[in-house]
Design goal:
One of its GO terms (biological process) is peptide catabolic process. It is built from ten helices and 32 strands. Residues 3-38 have low confidence and may be disordered.
């Protein structure tokens, strides 16, 4: 994402490992229909239980049960399974085949169920949801189980150890008065009785909502105020703490932190760690699954000198990654990776932001989301920016020159230029932005963030930088097209940028080529690996140690690999793969394994040798 000039201007399914524990419907187990490992390895054997990775390995009838459409909400993430709710005679089914290993002393099915109904009876079960393993009914719920939110249900299925069985949920509805059965975060944990199951893979804290009120000094380089964040624990493992990422403390020292947090409420702050870019907040008591909490704190931001993603170029301040955001906990634990100036370390879940910025009238303040200005106290303006389902929030402040337009598809676009940018260059960037946002939207899905702001300064040493609805860039058609493509590949389809930088940079450079009509013909023929350990899928830890190769491999070789994949699949199949993959991971998180599985599902050609040749591991 952080594209140096030579970078910017140059160049739902299952993993194989998961298949070992999960047999797809209609696929016999390798050694017979009821074979299983001789010993129980503690595991969670449901695939895609949160429905965030498309539909596989679930079977559903009708095919629209797994959804993120409006009308219901997810327990965690953005997708869920919605059975019934039609108010007419209907039967919906959802299922997948699972292998419960032999030797397991315990096997527990767990799921979150929300039931809402228009039925008024308090005694008759007109509409029902039945949970089964094979032909055995595990439990039945009905309109009588109506609740205002999700309820966690657990069922002991230890008696099925050593079997491959079909887990199913069947919803039946009578001829009138709807009942909706909404399922999410389905798990089946197995254990030998002495070893606890592995860490919950659910990403949490989920559904963060940030409310921020800040006021600036006369120059827009110092901001003070307050931030609140509300979040929900989506994991079956209780949350005893959360971590705030204070990323921009990289630009200072622990003795003089540019980002200062004080007067914490809703928890107790520990000592900053990871070079003062992480702050642990111990919660008053462990937060159970499905429960929400709020922490608040006073916030001070001091913007250092320098034309950086966090810095000021004379009178113009650029304020990226300055707001503290929640770190993510998943099966790997808390992600507390160090800041990298070579690329990105940022890994965050989609969140809602409402940010109020009080500033002098002479400063324009472009920001993530949709902004409105109202008069403040004497000589000041209050800019209120709201953004939904974004991973971060950035803004700028300064006496910018602003021009605006609307893309052919109706996206409002604003270009903010520092002094020294000619009006013709600004107009060129406006035209580029309008074209690029529509081109990417046509390939990957409609742009969801309202307006798009581009802040232009030719002094940026890094070329360009992306935030949701907000990009920083040089005067460059290619660089701006690249940064706008990041609205999809990092913004909408998220990833762990420290662990898997190729998932945003390679995909974004490939999207840039497509938008500019470049086919990448023969580009793979120029690949020359520096060592046996060099791979497209290496983490930022590797690239920070081999920084001279980062853009060549992740940007250049990465996009060439995707061009090669397009030639294997065919143009039509590749276009469908990426659009479907973006839809399946909309506001979610992509992984290399999930993309590889989705690509394999799009072709009858065995891709194993392709991944090996192109050094795409995971």
């Amino acid at each position: 994402m952080r594209t140096t000039p030579h970078k910017a201007l140059g160049a739902g399914a299952l993993t194989v490992a998961a298949v070992a524990a999960l047999v797809l419907p209609g696929t016999p187990a390798a050694a017979g229909p009821h074979s299983a490992p001789a010993a129980c390895a503690p595991a969670q054997v449901i695939g895609n239980g949160g429905f965030e990775s498309g539909t596989s390995p679930w079977t559903q009838s009708p095919s629209t049960l797994i959804t993120s459409r409006s009308g219901q909400t997810a327990h965690g993430g953005s997708s869920y399974a919605w059975l019934d709710g039609a108010g007419s005679t209907r039967t919906d089914t959802l299922g997948q085949s699972v292998t419960i290993p032999s030797g397991c002393a315990t096997a527990t099915l767990g799921f979150w169920l929300h039931t809402d109904t228009a039925e008024t009876t308090t005694s008759v079960a007109y509409d029902k949801l039945t949970a089964k393993i094979g032909s055995t009914t595990l439990a039945t719920y009905s309109n009588l189980d109506e609740n205002t939110g999700y309820v966690h249900r657990t069922i002991d299925v230890s008696s099925f150890a050593g079997q491959t069985v079909n887990l199913s949920f069947t919803g039946t509805e009578d001829s009138s008065l709807q009942t909706s059965f909404v399922l999410d975060d389905i798990t089946l944990d197995t254990s030998d009785g002495s070893t606890p199951p592995p860490a919950d893979a659910t990403r949490t804290p989920a559904a963060p909502a940030y409310t921020v009120n800040l006021s600036s000094d006369t120059s827009g380089t110092v901001w003070t105020g307050h931030e609140n964040v509300t979040f929900t624990n989506a994991s079956a493992t209780a949350l005893g703490e959360v971590y705030l990422r204070l990323w921009d403390n990289y630009h200072g020292t622990c003795d003089a932190m540019p980002i200062k947090v004080s007067n914490v409420t809703g928890g107790s702050a520990g000592a900053p760690s990871v070079a003062c870019t992480a702050l642990k907040i111990d919660l008053p008591s462990p937060l159970a699954q499905g429960r929400s909490a709020t922490i608040g704190f006073d916030l001070g931001i001091t913007v250092p000198s320098g034309a950086d993603r966090f810095g000021h170029d004379g009178a113009f301040s650029f304020i990226g990654n300055a707001l503290p955001v929640l770190a993510v906990r998943d099966s790997a634990g808390w992600h507390l990776d160090p800041y990298t100036n070579n690329g990105e370390s940022f890994y965050s879940l989609a969140a809602d932001f409402k940010v109020t910025l009080d500033h002098p009238n002479g400063l324009l303040v472009p920001a993530t989301g949709t902004s409105t200005d109202t008069p403040g106290s004497s000589g000041r303006t209050v800019t209120t920016a709201t953004a939904s389902k974004v991973r971060d929030f950035a803004w700028a402040a300064g006496p910018f020159a602003k021009i605006s337009g609307t893309s052919a598809a109706g996206v409002p676009v604003n270009v903010y230029s520092v002094s020294g940018i000619s009006s013709s260059s600004a107009q060129s960037m406006l035209s580029t932005a309008k074209t690029a946002v529509d081109a990417h939207a046509a390939r990957f899905g409609a742009y969801p963030y309202g307006e798009l702001d581009a802040v232009i300064d030719n002094n940026y040493w890094f070329g360009g930088m992306e935030y949701p609805g907000f990009v920083m860039d040089l005067v460059s058609t290619t660089a701006l097209t690249h940064e706008i493509a990041h609205q999809w590949w990092y913004g909408i389809v998220g990833d762990d940028e420290y662990t898997s930088p190729w998932l945003d940079e390679s995909f974004t450079d490939y999207a840039t080529d497509l938008a500019q009509g470049k086919t990448g013909s023969n580009c793979w023929s120029s690949v020359s690996w520096a060592s046996g350990t060099e791979k497209i899928t290496n983490s930022m830890a590797y690239w920070d140690a081999h920084s001279s190769r980062y853009s060549t491999v992740v940007y250049g070789y990465g996009k060439c690999a995707l061009h090669d994949l397009r030639r294997v699949l065919g143009d039509t199949a590749m276009a469908k793969l990426l659009k479907d993959y973006a839809t399946a991971h909309w506001y979610g998180v992509s992984t290399t394994a999930e993309f590889k599985a989705a690509a394999q599902a799009a072709t009858s050609t065995d891709l194993n040798s392709f991944w090996t040749q192109h050094r795409i591991d995971g």
